[in-house]
């Protein structure tokens, strides 16, 4: 096979746009790039400035270039008998066909392959498919991104990497892929078929390192063989060894491994405090800022204590990101530094692990909801099975629609066959659970901690010592899990997975299998299933009606623009129910009774099928359906709890947004105060709980956290230690906080014209001085939208890009990566950007905080907490709103200085920080940067002067 890899640069992406450069890389039969063709093309229209900015191609470059006809005359002979390849090939292919047509040639009729598909399939863990970033990741040279010849060559080399990856996979994987695409009349199907025939002719040596089981190639062995780390050792390696002696050995090993390793005062203090809490059976609140090295600060005492006392230590993080960072960065380092074998296992929520039984079932039935997309996802996962040892979905880049696919193959307790599953010995979830059982330290997340509590401690191995990282989120996660949160689609997904129409869904699948089975019973069972369909449709109708009527209760917010996220919120009060509540409860009652009846009939049917001796081979289907019935029962009970609204300690509310209306409906029922529950689950029961975060104190005191988390009694009994670690950075030299004291103020979440104009101009002036590299934090999405267009326009002339959350597509990670990848850009973010965003070094020089991050006082949970504080004769603003905002403000400030080399500016545009009586709490809580206030006019010269030092 001969491949031609094509790339065009054009004046835009409309059909009226024209080609300005053509690139073609030819790959010969021996899989070498034999030729690269490239030429500028003279367009009939001028090149827009943003295209010149992107590609570097100017009017000057193309003014004497050959016309399109001449270029096509040179290219057409190169396109004979080739398979056409491109990165996002449809774009280039359309331009090719149009160019052939304009120049009087016949259209291209050969095969076409897209490297995007190949990357998704053969590198399922790539986090991005952008050509430049993929080239970096795969070690492919790509000298001039967005120039056609360089792009074509880079795409050709990436395509060859994919073919190389394919050649290293077992024959079985290729057979699976070929079979998967067989029904598709596609060029990918043709390609896999041709590759399979080649491979079968060669019949060479199969690659090592794979386990073959039930027609899949896997990377994972039987997990039952996994033993504890020190199973062969007779003596405890820490017998008679003090923590100080242990640390000396670790430090020696770290120095030998990392020449740049230096002891940090804050980290040494943290090691001592955490060790003391463990040794004295006390709880600890410890604030450790960026750069402390807090992961090692708690992991080393945890390992020491766990091994010495033979007691498991649980570590919990708020985000999966931090869990991954501990797994990939910190644990491997400690494995080399700690002078004896130990294990730290990562254990996540069950839905993160693939259920091999469900996946096998889906592959064998080719049960795809949207075949075109799902076939690619299935192909990705077949290759991934030959690579993954964890079966954890975080390793997969599933794209937007992939999450629906994942939901149908994820592990679930309700549909688990346990030991009777043919996949049990290979099961990823049970492997992770077993590893956690034999590990010294288990790394989990806050969500799983609470799911474990709700499941009566059946999920996590038993533990007496717990480290909670990112502890400022504990209260919020507890509320979510100990309360209820239900989405419109929660119910719809369960219903449609059971029955969407007579062909789609698990019940129709079962009916089809029963229809093929012999015997009078199967006809009976088929009629029972037919009888369930109308009831399920009835429930879906009622739920749609209920969702629409609940959504209609929410007031349209006067200050909200369409599509404003979290746009509608309505708190429901037990003693002031809306007038229509009785009518709504009647609909809920109908849902409740119909569901109860359906579930009862369904479960009886499944029980009969299980007891029947005939092996129709549908055990796994019966298990899945039984799981879905359990889900429905849970949703039925949750809806009843919400509609009854009879718990005085719970706050009930509805949320939705204007674009998706009732489809976006969410129901919440959250405990007003979780401190008693936290005390009962953790602080009374566990020997020691260590809570750490960069932001736990307010105005140098931990009182707010002690109250919120239920630590009051532990503090009175002197079972609570607290520590605030000194910062390892020199903030006085590294950060300057500037406050323009005459800046206009604003009421509510929307700025008036004068405020917005002044803000846009000031942001633009500052961005020019700092050459972009600026993160702007908003507290309302509405204000971000007001600023985005005018700022973009002002900065375009300066060659500075503006990227806006919710305005430019992409997740937080994608937007952050774009920001880091561009020399001069300004990133506008709201809520999720205030924390967890890590942009070290030069990429971020200035941070602008538009408003102090107070939570909207009318948010139902804030409102209910405030009422409770008023009843206790306390000031809710000072006891709740200010401390919450200060912690958020400190998180935002923490985005700027991420290493001892970083220097930067923080501009606070909210003059309340100077004028109000509570402003000092914000300023005193910062880690000692230089602070100056001045008139707006003097701000830019001062910033410029400070940066030049």
UniProtKB/TrEMBL annotation:
<keyword id="KW-0269">Exonuclease</keyword>
<feature type="domain" description="Helicase ATP-binding">
    <location>
        <begin position="253"/>
        <end position="524"/>
    </location>
</feature>
<dbReference type="InterPro" id="IPR014001">
    <property type="entry name" value="Helicase_ATP-bd"/>
</dbReference>
<feature type="domain" description="Helicase C-terminal">
    <location>
        <begin position="762"/>
        <end position="937"/>
    </location>
</feature>
<dbReference type="Pfam" id="PF00270">
    <property type="entry name" value="DEAD"/>
</dbReference>
<keyword id="KW-0547">Nucleotide-binding</keyword>
<feature type="short sequence motif" description="DEAH box">
    <location>
        <begin position="469"/>
        <end position="472"/>
    </location>
</feature>
<dbReference type="InterPro" id="IPR027417">
    <property type="entry name" value="P-loop_NTPase"/>
</dbReference>
<keyword id="KW-0347">Helicase</keyword>
<feature type="binding site">
    <location>
        <begin position="288"/>
        <end position="295"/>
    </location>
    <ligand>
        <name>ATP</name>
    </ligand>
</feature>
<dbReference type="InterPro" id="IPR006555">
    <property type="entry name" value="ATP-dep_Helicase_C"/>
</dbReference>
<keyword id="KW-0378">Hydrolase</keyword>
<comment type="similarity">
    <text>Belongs to the helicase family. DinG subfamily. Type 2 sub-subfamily.</text>
</comment>
<dbReference type="InterPro" id="IPR001650">
    <property type="entry name" value="Helicase_C-like"/>
</dbReference>
<dbReference type="InterPro" id="IPR013520">
    <property type="entry name" value="Ribonucl_H"/>
</dbReference>
<keyword id="KW-0540">Nuclease</keyword>
<dbReference type="InterPro" id="IPR011545">
    <property type="entry name" value="DEAD/DEAH_box_helicase_dom"/>
</dbReference>
<dbReference type="Pfam" id="PF00929">
    <property type="entry name" value="RNase_T"/>
</dbReference>
<dbReference type="InterPro" id="IPR036397">
    <property type="entry name" value="RNaseH_sf"/>
</dbReference>
<comment type="function">
    <text>3'-5' exonuclease.</text>
</comment>
<dbReference type="InterPro" id="IPR045028">
    <property type="entry name" value="DinG/Rad3-like"/>
</dbReference>
<dbReference type="Pfam" id="PF13307">
    <property type="entry name" value="Helicase_C_2"/>
</dbReference>
<dbReference type="InterPro" id="IPR012337">
    <property type="entry name" value="RNaseH-like_sf"/>
</dbReference>
<dbReference type="GO" id="GO:0016787">
    <property type="term" value="F:hydrolase activity"/>
</dbReference>
<dbReference type="InterPro" id="IPR014013">
    <property type="entry name" value="Helic_SF1/SF2_ATP-bd_DinG/Rad3"/>
</dbReference>
<dbReference type="InterPro" id="IPR006310">
    <property type="entry name" value="DinG"/>
</dbReference>
<dbReference type="GO" id="GO:0003678">
    <property type="term" value="F:DNA helicase activity"/>
</dbReference>
<keyword id="KW-0067">ATP-binding</keyword>
<protein>
    <recommendedName>
        <fullName>3'-5' exonuclease DinG</fullName>
        <ecNumber>3.1.-.-</ecNumber>
    </recommendedName>
</protein>
């Amino acid at each position: 096979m001969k491949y031609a890899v094509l790339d065009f640069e054009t004046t835009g992406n409309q059909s009226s746009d024209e080609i300005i450069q053509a690139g073609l890389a030819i790959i010969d039969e021996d899989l070498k790039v034999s030729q690269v063709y490239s030429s500028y093309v003279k367009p009939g229209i001028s090149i827009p400035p943003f295209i010149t900015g992107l590609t570097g191609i100017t009017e000057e470059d193309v003014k004497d270039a050959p016309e399109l006809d001449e270029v096509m005359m040179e290219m057409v002979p190169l396109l004979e008998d080739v398979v056409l390849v491109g990165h996002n090939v449809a774009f280039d292919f359309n331009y090719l066909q149009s160019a052939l047509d304009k120049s009087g040639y016949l259209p291209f009729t050969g095969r076409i392959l897209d490297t995007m598909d190949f990357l998704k399939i053969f590198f399922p863990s790539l986090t991005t498919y952008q050509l430049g970033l993929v080239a970096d990741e795969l070690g492919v040279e790509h000298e001039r991104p967005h120039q056609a010849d360089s792009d074509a060559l880079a795409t050709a080399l990436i395509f060859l990497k994919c073919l190389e990856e394919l050649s290293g996979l077992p024959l079985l994987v290729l057979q699976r892929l070929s079979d998967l695409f067989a029904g598709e009349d596609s060029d990918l199907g043709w390609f896999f078929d041709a590759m399979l025939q080649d491979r079968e002719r060669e019949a060479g040596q199969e690659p090592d390192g794979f386990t073959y089981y039930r027609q899949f190639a896997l990377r994972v062995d039987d997990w039952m063989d996994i033993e504890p780390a020190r199973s062969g050792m007779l003596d405890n390696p820490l017998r008679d060894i003090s923590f100080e002696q242990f640390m000396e050995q670790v430090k020696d090993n770290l120095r030998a491994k990392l020449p740049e390793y230096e002891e940090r005062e804050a980290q040494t203090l943290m090691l001592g405090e955490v060790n003391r809490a463990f040794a004295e059976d006390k709880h600890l609140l410890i604030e450790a800022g960026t750069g402390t090295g807090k992961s090692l600060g708690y992991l080393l005492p945890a390992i020491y204590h766990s091994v010495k006392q033979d007691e498991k230590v649980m570590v919990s993080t708020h985000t999966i990101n931090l869990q991954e960072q501990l797994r990939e960065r910190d644990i491997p380092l400690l494995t080399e530094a700690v002078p004896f074998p130990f294990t730290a296992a990562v254990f996540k929520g069950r839905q993160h692990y693939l259920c091999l039984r469900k996946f096998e079932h889906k592959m064998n039935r080719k049960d795809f909801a949207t075949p075109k997309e799902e076939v690619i996802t299935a192909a990705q996962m077949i290759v991934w099975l030959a690579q993954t040892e964890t079966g954890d979905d975080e390793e997969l880049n599933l794209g937007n629609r992939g999450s629906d696919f994942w939901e149908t193959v994820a592990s679930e307790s309700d549909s688990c066959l346990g030991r009777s599953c043919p996949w049990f010995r290979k099961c990823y979830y049970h492997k992770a659970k077993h590893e956690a059982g034999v590990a010294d330290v288990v790394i989990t997340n806050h969500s799983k901690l609470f799911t474990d509590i709700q499941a009566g401690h059946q999920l996590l191995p038993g533990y007496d010592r717990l480290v909670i990282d990112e502890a400022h989120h504990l209260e919020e996660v507890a509320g979510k899990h100990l309360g209820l949160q239900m989405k419109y689609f929660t119910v719809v997904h369960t219903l449609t997975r059971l029955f969407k129409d007579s062909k789609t869904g698990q019940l129709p699948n079962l009916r089809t299998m029963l229809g093929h089975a012999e015997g009078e019973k199967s006809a009976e069972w088929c009629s029972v299933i037919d009888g369930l369909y109308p009831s399920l449709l009835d429930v879906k109708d009622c739920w749609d009606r209920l969702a629409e009527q609940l959504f209609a209760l929410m007031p349209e917010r006067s200050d909200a623009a369409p599509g404003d996220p979290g746009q509608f919120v309505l708190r429901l009060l037990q003693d002031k129910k809306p007038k229509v509540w009785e009518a709504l409860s009647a609909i809920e009652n109908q849902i409740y009774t119909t569901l109860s009846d359906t579930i009862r009939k369904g479960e009886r049917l499944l029980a009969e099928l299980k007891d029947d001796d005939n092996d129709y081979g549908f055990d796994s289907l019966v298990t899945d359906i039984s799981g879905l019935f359990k889900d429905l029962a849970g949703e039925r009970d949750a809806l009843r709890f919400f509609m009854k609204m009879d718990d005085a300690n719970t706050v009930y509310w509805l949320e939705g947004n204007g674009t998706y209306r009732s489809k976006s409906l969410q129901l919440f029922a959250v405990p007003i105060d979780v401190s008693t529950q936290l005390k009962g689950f953790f602080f009374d029961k566990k020997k020691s709980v260590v809570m750490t975060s960069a932001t736990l104190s307010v105005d140098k005191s931990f009182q707010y956290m002690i109250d919120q988390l239920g630590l009051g009694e532990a503090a009175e009994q002197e079972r609570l230690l607290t520590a605030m670690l000194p910062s390892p950075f020199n903030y006085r030299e590294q950060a300057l906080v500037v406050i323009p004291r005459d800046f206009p103020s604003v009421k509510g979440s929307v700025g008036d014209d004068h405020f917005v104009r002044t803000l846009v101009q000031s942001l633009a002036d500052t961005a020019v001085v700092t050459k972009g590299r600026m993160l702007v934090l908003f507290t309302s999405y509405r204000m971000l939208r007001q600023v985005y267009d005018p700022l973009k326009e002002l900065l375009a002339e300066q060659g500075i890009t503006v990227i806006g959350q919710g305005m430019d597509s992409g997740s937080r990670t994608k937007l952050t990566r774009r920001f880091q990848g561009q020399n001069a850009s300004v990133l506008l973010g709201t809520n999720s950007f205030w924390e967890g965003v890590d942009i070290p070094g030069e990429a971020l020089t200035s941070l602008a905080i538009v408003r102090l991050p107070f939570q909207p006082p009318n948010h139902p949970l804030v409102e209910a907490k405030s009422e409770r504080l008023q009843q206790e004769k306390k000031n809710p603003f000072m006891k709740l709103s200010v401390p919450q905002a200060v912690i958020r403000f400190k998180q935002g400030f923490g985005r700027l200085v991420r290493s001892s080399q970083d220097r930067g500016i923080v501009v606070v545009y909210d003059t309340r920080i100077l004028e109000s009586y509570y402003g000092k709490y914000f300023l005193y809580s910062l880690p000692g940067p230089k602070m100056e206030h001045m008139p707006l006019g003097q701000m830019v010269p001062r910033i410029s002067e400070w940066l030049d030092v």
